[in-house]
Amino acid sequence: MPSILDAIQDYVLSDEEIAQIQARTLVFDAEAEQFHVQPGATAFFTHRLFDWLDQNL
User: pTM for the full model?
Assistant: First the structure.
């Protein structure tokens, strides 16, 4: 019986496959926002999210 690590190898992409991916991706890093209070952080996040959506959809 194969282990879960063996099964994961079925999903590893080659460099050529990775180079073909063209999907836009939005990544947020909450660590960079550590100095905002929670209500401000939520508003800041929402603003950035909707700006990105407006530009990319």
Answer: 0.50
